[in-house]
């Protein structure tokens, strides 16, 4: 069985205030909250998932919001920048929209592509790029029309403390193809249509520190449980020690840390977010795994309420 990664399944990050997080990703970026649950390892913390209309693999960004969390520092051993793909001809719309919300935007170029670069309220670095490939999103919220809506991930920029070793893992272990080099980056392509362009900073980056405003891990796609087990065997044959399979309710996961310090996950596409909610009601209720249901009242009492709301433009 020849394995080649289809690209990003999801990206998970630490943030601060939950309402500000929801306001940014739903209210401003127009993503759909597809699941409201908890960190299974720390039930006092939400785990929020945002994506397209269904939360399809390749569109999902997830957050652990904790207002008491320490501030992190973006650096080596992390995803440095999360890249979102928007339809061709949409960057002007997004530049005007972000400016209306007084979000500072920089235009940057990398390997013959133009990006809008900015940060969210916690300092996570984000960029938008126009891409032809990948299905359009049908989700519209907060004044973002479907013709300009974020499709999902364009990819990510990886910061490694050992870029040569990270490059080897991306190509030799995950089966990505090197397609370009320039501007201080090495570009890889995975097999899928979304989350398929990975740029690796060519020079070593000093270690970052985890905390609010940093990415915790990046997850790569496995089509099903059988493929995930094949990935686990392959990863192990390349000298890594992947974790046992973890049940994350909406996907199964294994984890390993590559030699440049970045935490990699391999997550299954199924069962998806509609396993415990109807597709038209995703993200409306706090969903708990069965082992936490007896503690629902205490868990809900400990979580800060928030609203999915449209965000008015501030007057200058």
UniProtKB/TrEMBL annotation:
Coiled-coil spans in chain: none
Limits of the VOC domain: 7-131, 152-269
Q: Which Pfam families match?
A: Glyoxalase
SUPFAM superfamilies listed in its UniProt record: Glyoxalase/Bleomycin resistance protein/Dihydroxybiphenyl dioxygenase
Q: Which GO terms describe its molecular function?
A: dioxygenase activity
Q: Which UniProt keywords apply?
A: Dioxygenase, Oxidoreductase
Q: Which PANTHER family match?
A: RING-CLEAVING DIOXYGENASE MHQE-RELATED (PTHR36110)
Q: What is this protein called?
A: Ring-cleaving dioxygenase
At the highest ranks, the source species' classification is: Bacteria, Bacillati, Bacillota, Bacilli, Bacillales
């Amino acid at each position: 069985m020849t394995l080649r990664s289809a690209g990003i399944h999801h990206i998970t990050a630490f943030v601060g205030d939950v309402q500000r997080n929801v306001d940014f990703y739903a209210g401003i970026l127009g993503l759909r909250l597809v699941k409201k649950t908890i960190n299974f390892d720390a039930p006092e913390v939400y785990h929020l998932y945002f994506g397209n209309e269904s939360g399809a693999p390749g569109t999902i960004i997830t957050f652990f919001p904790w207002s008491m969390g320490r501030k992190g520092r973006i650096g080596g051993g992390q995803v440095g920048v999360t890249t979102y793909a928007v339809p061709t001809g949409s960057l002007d719309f997004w530049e005007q929209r972000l400016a209306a919300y007084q979000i500072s935007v920089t235009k940057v170029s990398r390997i013959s592509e133009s990006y809008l670069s900015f940060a969210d309220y916690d300092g996570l670095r984000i960029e938008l790029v126009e891409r032809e490939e990948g299905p359009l999103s049908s989700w519209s919220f907060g004044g973002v029309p479907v013709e300009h809506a974020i499709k999902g991930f364009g990819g990510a920029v990886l910061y490694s403390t050992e870029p040569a070793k990270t490059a080897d893992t991306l190509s030799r272990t995950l089966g990505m193809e090197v397609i370009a080099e320039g501007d201080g980056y090495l570009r890889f392509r995975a097999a899928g249509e979304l989350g398929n362009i990975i740029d690796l900073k060519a020079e070593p980056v000093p270690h970052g520190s985890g905390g609010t405003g940093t990415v915790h891990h990046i997850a790569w796609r496995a089509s099903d449980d059988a493929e995930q087990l094949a990935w686990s065997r392959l990863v192990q044959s390349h000298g890594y020690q992947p974790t046992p399979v973890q049940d994350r309710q909406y996907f199964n996961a294994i984890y390993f840390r590559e030699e440049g310090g970045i935490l990699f996950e391999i997550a299954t596409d199924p069962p998806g977010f509609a396993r415990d909610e109807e597709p038209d009601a995703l993200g409306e209720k706090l969903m708990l795994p069965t082992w936490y249901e007896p503690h629902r009242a205490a868990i809900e009492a400990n979580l800060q309420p928030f609203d999915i709301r449209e965000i008015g433009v501030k007057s200058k």
